[in-house]
Write a structure and sequence with these properties.
The chain has 71 residues and is α/β, with parallel strands linked by helices. It has helices at residues 14-31, 47-55, and strands at 5-10, 35-40, 60-63. 38% of the residues lie in helices and 23% in strands. Strands 1-2-3 form a three-stranded parallel beta sheet, with helices on one face. Strand 1, helix 1 (14-31) and strand 2 form a beta-alpha-beta unit. The radius of gyration is 12 Å and the shape is globular. The protein starts with a strand and ends in an 8-residue tail after the last strand.
Length: 71
């Protein structure tokens, strides 16, 4: 079990999402085990699709609609 969890909230962030996740994953590989959790808040710009196709095998990806991003 990972000692650190990195939780990344996402909403219509496709333009910067790849750089963000690649940075977190590079730090993870350098500093040790961590779980990466990404929660998409109903993006309509393709962010969720990018997450699933490029990072689904190395991060836990969820999609939540309604409520606030903090929920």
């Amino acid at each position: 079990m990972a000692q650190v969890s990195v939780i990344i909230p996402v909403f219509n962030s496709k333009a910067t999402l790849k750089a963000c996740l690649d940075s977190v994953l590079a730090a993870k590989s350098h500093f040790g085990d961590a779980e990466v959790i990404v929660i998409d808040h109903g993006s309509t710009d393709g962010s969720y699709e990018l997450l699933c196709s490029n990072y689904g095998h190395i991060a836990r990806i969820f999609q939540r609609r309604g409520g606030t991003i903090a929920s």
